[in-house]
Amino acid sequence: MTEQTHGPEQDPNVTGDQAEEGALHVEKWEGIWLRFAAAMTAIFILAIIVAAASFGISVPGASGRVDPNTLSDPNSPFANPGLRELAPGKYEVYMVAQTWNFLPDKIEVPAGSEVTFYLTARDVVHGFKLAGTNINMMALPGQLSVLKATFDTPGTYNYICHEYCGYVAGAPIGHQTMYGQLTVVPSVAATDETAQLTTE
Ligand SMILES: [Cu+2]
What we know:
Layout: H1 16-24, H2 28-55, E1 64-65, E2 82-87, E3 90-98, E4 101-103, E5 106-110, E6 113-121, E7 126-130, E8 136-139, E9 143-151, E10 155-160, E11 179-185, H3 188-199
Parallel strand pairs: 3-6, 5-11
Antiparallel strand pairs: 1-9, 2-3, 3-4, 6-9, 7-8, 7-10, 10-11
Protein backbone atom coordinates (compact mmCIF):
# COMPACT_ATOMS: atom_id res chain seq x y z
CA MET A 1 0.00 0.00 0.00
CA THR A 2 1.38 3.35 -0.93
CA GLU A 3 0.61 6.50 0.93
CA GLN A 4 0.85 9.93 -0.54
CA THR A 5 2.72 12.46 1.43
CA HIS A 6 1.66 16.06 1.67
CA GLY A 7 3.45 19.02 3.11
CA PRO A 8 6.88 19.11 4.64
CA GLU A 9 6.57 15.82 6.56
CA GLN A 10 7.95 13.48 3.93
CA ASP A 11 8.78 9.85 4.19
CA PRO A 12 12.58 9.64 4.48
CA ASN A 13 12.47 6.51 2.26
CA VAL A 14 10.99 8.46 -0.63
CA THR A 15 13.64 9.63 -3.05
CA GLY A 16 13.81 13.18 -4.34
CA ASP A 17 12.27 12.27 -7.73
CA GLN A 18 9.34 10.47 -6.15
CA ALA A 19 8.75 13.38 -3.79
CA GLU A 20 8.57 15.72 -6.78
CA GLU A 21 6.05 13.48 -8.53
CA GLY A 22 3.92 13.51 -5.38
CA ALA A 23 4.02 17.32 -5.23
CA LEU A 24 2.82 17.60 -8.86
CA HIS A 25 0.00 15.14 -8.47
CA VAL A 26 -3.35 16.67 -9.38
CA GLU A 27 -6.48 14.95 -8.17
CA LYS A 28 -8.89 13.85 -10.90
CA TRP A 29 -11.66 16.32 -10.02
CA GLU A 30 -9.21 19.10 -9.33
CA GLY A 31 -7.88 18.60 -12.86
CA ILE A 32 -11.39 18.58 -14.32
CA TRP A 33 -12.31 21.83 -12.58
CA LEU A 34 -9.00 23.46 -13.53
CA ARG A 35 -9.68 22.66 -17.18
CA PHE A 36 -13.28 23.81 -16.83
CA ALA A 37 -12.17 27.16 -15.32
CA ALA A 38 -9.55 27.64 -18.04
CA ALA A 39 -12.12 26.86 -20.75
CA MET A 40 -14.66 29.30 -19.23
CA THR A 41 -12.02 32.05 -19.06
CA ALA A 42 -11.16 31.46 -22.72
CA ILE A 43 -14.88 31.53 -23.69
CA PHE A 44 -15.45 34.81 -21.78
CA ILE A 45 -12.44 36.49 -23.38
CA LEU A 46 -13.63 35.29 -26.80
CA ALA A 47 -17.16 36.61 -26.07
CA ILE A 48 -15.75 40.06 -25.22
CA ILE A 49 -13.72 40.14 -28.44
CA VAL A 50 -16.68 38.97 -30.57
CA ALA A 51 -19.08 41.44 -28.87
CA ALA A 52 -16.63 44.34 -29.23
CA ALA A 53 -16.09 43.54 -32.91
CA SER A 54 -19.77 43.02 -33.81
CA PHE A 55 -21.14 46.01 -31.84
CA GLY A 56 -18.22 48.29 -32.67
CA ILE A 57 -17.36 48.80 -29.01
CA SER A 58 -14.05 50.51 -28.47
CA VAL A 59 -12.38 52.45 -25.72
CA PRO A 60 -12.28 56.10 -26.76
CA GLY A 61 -8.79 57.50 -26.71
CA ALA A 62 -7.21 60.76 -27.70
CA SER A 63 -8.40 61.86 -31.13
CA GLY A 64 -6.13 64.85 -31.14
CA ARG A 65 -4.45 67.54 -29.09
CA VAL A 66 -5.75 70.95 -28.20
CA ASP A 67 -3.98 73.53 -26.09
CA PRO A 68 -6.31 74.35 -23.15
CA ASN A 69 -4.94 77.91 -23.12
CA THR A 70 -6.24 78.57 -26.64
CA LEU A 71 -9.86 77.48 -26.14
CA SER A 72 -11.07 81.08 -26.09
CA ASP A 73 -9.07 82.14 -29.16
CA PRO A 74 -11.47 83.46 -31.83
CA ASN A 75 -10.31 80.87 -34.37
CA SER A 76 -10.72 77.95 -31.95
CA PRO A 77 -13.84 75.84 -32.55
CA PHE A 78 -14.18 75.78 -28.75
CA ALA A 79 -14.46 79.58 -28.54
CA ASN A 80 -18.21 79.27 -29.18
CA PRO A 81 -19.12 75.86 -27.82
CA GLY A 82 -22.40 74.45 -29.05
CA LEU A 83 -24.32 72.64 -31.74
CA ARG A 84 -23.66 73.18 -35.42
CA GLU A 85 -25.64 71.71 -38.28
CA LEU A 86 -23.37 70.29 -40.98
CA ALA A 87 -26.14 68.92 -43.21
CA PRO A 88 -29.76 67.90 -42.68
CA GLY A 89 -29.68 65.34 -39.88
CA LYS A 90 -25.94 65.74 -39.30
CA TYR A 91 -24.62 67.77 -36.41
CA GLU A 92 -21.46 68.39 -34.46
CA VAL A 93 -21.11 69.66 -30.92
CA TYR A 94 -17.99 71.35 -29.68
CA MET A 95 -18.13 70.99 -25.93
CA VAL A 96 -15.95 72.32 -23.12
CA ALA A 97 -15.91 70.68 -19.70
CA GLN A 98 -14.81 72.98 -16.91
CA THR A 99 -15.29 73.38 -13.17
CA TRP A 100 -18.24 72.93 -12.82
CA ASN A 101 -20.31 72.86 -15.93
CA PHE A 102 -20.49 71.80 -19.52
CA LEU A 103 -20.61 74.33 -22.33
CA PRO A 104 -23.20 73.87 -23.74
CA ASP A 105 -25.41 72.33 -21.06
CA LYS A 106 -28.49 72.18 -23.30
CA ILE A 107 -28.59 70.59 -26.75
CA GLU A 108 -31.61 69.96 -28.95
CA VAL A 109 -31.65 67.86 -32.12
CA PRO A 110 -34.42 66.30 -34.21
CA ALA A 111 -34.91 62.54 -34.08
CA GLY A 112 -32.74 60.59 -36.49
CA SER A 113 -29.84 62.99 -36.11
CA GLU A 114 -26.26 61.87 -36.17
CA VAL A 115 -24.25 63.93 -33.70
CA THR A 116 -20.48 64.00 -33.35
CA PHE A 117 -19.21 65.21 -29.99
CA TYR A 118 -15.88 67.00 -29.79
CA LEU A 119 -14.89 67.33 -26.18
CA THR A 120 -12.05 68.82 -24.22
CA ALA A 121 -11.51 70.23 -20.73
CA ARG A 122 -10.46 73.73 -19.82
CA ASP A 123 -8.93 73.12 -16.40
CA VAL A 124 -8.89 69.72 -14.73
CA VAL A 125 -9.84 66.14 -15.53
CA HIS A 126 -13.56 65.68 -16.20
CA GLY A 127 -15.68 62.92 -17.68
CA PHE A 128 -18.66 62.82 -20.00
CA LYS A 129 -21.35 60.19 -19.95
CA LEU A 130 -24.48 60.52 -22.02
CA ALA A 131 -27.13 58.30 -20.45
CA GLY A 132 -28.96 55.90 -22.77
CA THR A 133 -26.16 55.87 -25.34
CA ASN A 134 -22.70 54.36 -25.56
CA ILE A 135 -21.12 57.83 -25.31
CA ASN A 136 -18.75 57.70 -22.38
CA MET A 137 -15.40 59.43 -22.55
CA MET A 138 -12.87 61.43 -20.63
CA ALA A 139 -12.52 65.19 -20.92
CA LEU A 140 -8.88 66.00 -20.36
CA PRO A 141 -7.08 69.32 -20.64
CA GLY A 142 -4.95 69.12 -23.78
CA GLN A 143 -6.84 66.19 -25.28
CA LEU A 144 -9.56 66.11 -27.91
CA SER A 145 -12.07 63.29 -27.36
CA VAL A 146 -14.46 62.46 -30.18
CA LEU A 147 -17.48 60.13 -30.30
CA LYS A 148 -20.51 59.91 -32.55
CA ALA A 149 -24.07 58.78 -31.84
CA THR A 150 -27.34 58.60 -33.74
CA PHE A 151 -30.49 59.61 -31.86
CA ASP A 152 -33.55 57.85 -33.26
CA THR A 153 -35.77 57.95 -30.18
CA PRO A 154 -37.23 61.28 -29.03
CA GLY A 155 -36.70 62.04 -25.37
CA THR A 156 -34.25 63.61 -22.96
CA TYR A 157 -30.75 62.28 -22.51
CA ASN A 158 -28.89 63.56 -19.49
CA TYR A 159 -25.15 63.91 -19.50
CA ILE A 160 -23.01 64.06 -16.42
CA CYS A 161 -19.43 64.47 -15.37
CA HIS A 162 -18.46 61.04 -14.09
CA GLU A 163 -14.95 61.96 -12.97
CA TYR A 164 -14.83 63.47 -9.51
CA CYS A 165 -13.41 66.80 -10.50
CA GLY A 166 -11.30 69.55 -9.24
CA TYR A 167 -10.99 71.53 -6.15
CA VAL A 168 -10.36 75.20 -6.62
CA ALA A 169 -8.91 76.81 -3.49
CA GLY A 170 -11.54 78.73 -1.58
CA ALA A 171 -14.46 77.59 -3.74
CA PRO A 172 -17.08 75.02 -2.77
CA ILE A 173 -16.86 71.68 -4.54
CA GLY A 174 -19.37 71.55 -7.37
CA HIS A 175 -18.79 68.27 -9.19
CA GLN A 176 -22.36 67.19 -8.48
CA THR A 177 -23.71 70.23 -10.34
CA MET A 178 -21.90 69.32 -13.52
CA TYR A 179 -24.54 68.00 -15.90
CA GLY A 180 -26.49 68.87 -19.00
CA GLN A 181 -29.33 67.63 -21.12
CA LEU A 182 -29.67 66.63 -24.74
CA THR A 183 -33.26 66.70 -26.02
CA VAL A 184 -34.29 64.72 -29.06
CA VAL A 185 -37.47 66.20 -30.51
CA PRO A 186 -39.66 64.34 -33.01
CA SER A 187 -38.35 65.12 -36.48
CA VAL A 188 -40.36 67.42 -38.78
CA ALA A 189 -40.82 64.57 -41.27
CA ALA A 190 -42.23 62.33 -38.53
CA THR A 191 -44.60 65.09 -37.37
CA ASP A 192 -45.81 65.60 -40.94
CA GLU A 193 -46.52 61.89 -41.26
CA THR A 194 -48.46 61.93 -38.00
CA ALA A 195 -50.42 64.97 -39.19
CA GLN A 196 -51.29 63.22 -42.45
CA LEU A 197 -52.38 60.12 -40.60
CA THR A 198 -54.65 62.10 -38.30
CA THR A 199 -56.27 64.10 -41.13
CA GLU A 200 -57.00 61.05 -43.26
CU1 LIG B 1 -16.24 67.50 -13.90
